[in-house]
Recover the amino acids of this structure.
């Protein structure tokens, strides 16, 4: 029995990134493979014809490559943290139907997946929590969830494509609260500059009738801008298209490598890593 997802529902918003991860796996198999996404697409009753048609366009194919690189980069940082903290909490903020936590599972970490209640309801059906795993329904801006994470052996938090939808003040407040609650842990997420965020925002801001794009979280120089938020933050960043992988793969055209350079350079598409120092 396939799980039915209707058009024009909140649940539908989960389909787009999931489908992109499936497309990435098909287009760039040497760079990225998400078996869970491929499997889930087969288990969902939904009309994928429009997504399928769009996925063939040049820019959609580049968009799929972006998704692949972003997931790879975040997974790299999670695995890197687990090398020195093997029993840490691995926390996916705004998880949707993403299985990065599981793909980084070292056999001893604890995995938490956080998202809005209606998203977690879908996740519980399609990706029920496994051993050492917990799906937590919450609003990230409501700090109740902080108490549900066992960070006694360290914690690595990651957010993929999430903070573009947050106001700068919301991200700042969240980061400061996490620094209080989780000293010596790490937060990793993707970000971009104002120009890129305006482009990302075009579609969803229009539907939400939001005028002031300027209030949304964007960053050019992560180290200098975000370090000002709190003296405990150790901020570093790397370009997210080419900062972890030079993309010299036969599946990636020279034109796409050029676009990747523009993304990292002019758009400041980056993976930001914030280490939370000790207590104040």
């Amino acid at each position: 029995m396939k799980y039915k997802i209707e058009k024009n529902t909140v649940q539908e918003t989960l389909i787009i990134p999931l489908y992109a991860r499936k497309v990435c796996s098909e287009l760039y198999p040497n760079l990225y493979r998400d078996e869970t996404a491929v499997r889930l697409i087969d288990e969902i009753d939904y009309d994928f014809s429009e997504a399928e048609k769009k996925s063939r366009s040049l820019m959609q194919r580049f968009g799929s490559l972006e998704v692949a690189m972003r997931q790879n980069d975040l997974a790299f940082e999670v695995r890197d943290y687990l090398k020195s903290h093997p029993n840490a909490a691995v926390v996916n903020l705004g998880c949707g139907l993403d299985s990065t936590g599981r793909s980084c599972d070292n056999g001893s970490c604890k995995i938490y997946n956080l998202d809005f209640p209606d998203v977690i309801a879908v996740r519980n059906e399609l990706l029920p929590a496994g051993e050492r795993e917990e799906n937590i329904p919450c609003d990230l801006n409501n700090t109740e969830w902080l108490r549900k994470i066992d960070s006694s052996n360290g914690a690595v938090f990651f957010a993929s494509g999430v903070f573009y939808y947050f106001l700068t003040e919301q991200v700042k407040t969240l980061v400061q609260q996490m620094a209080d609650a989780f000293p010596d842990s790490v937060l990793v997420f993707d970000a971009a500059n104002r120009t890129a965020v305006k482009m990302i925002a075009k579609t969803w801001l229009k539907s939400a009738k939001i005028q002031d794009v300027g209030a949304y979280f964007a960053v050019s120089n992560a180290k200098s801008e975000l370090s000002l938020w709190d003296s405990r933050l150790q901020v570093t960043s790397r370009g997210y298209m080419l900062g972890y992988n030079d993309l010299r793969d036969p599946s990636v055209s020279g034109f796409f490598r050029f676009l990747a350079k523009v993304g990292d350079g002019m758009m400041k598409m980056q993976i930001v890593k914030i280490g939370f120092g000790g207590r104040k």
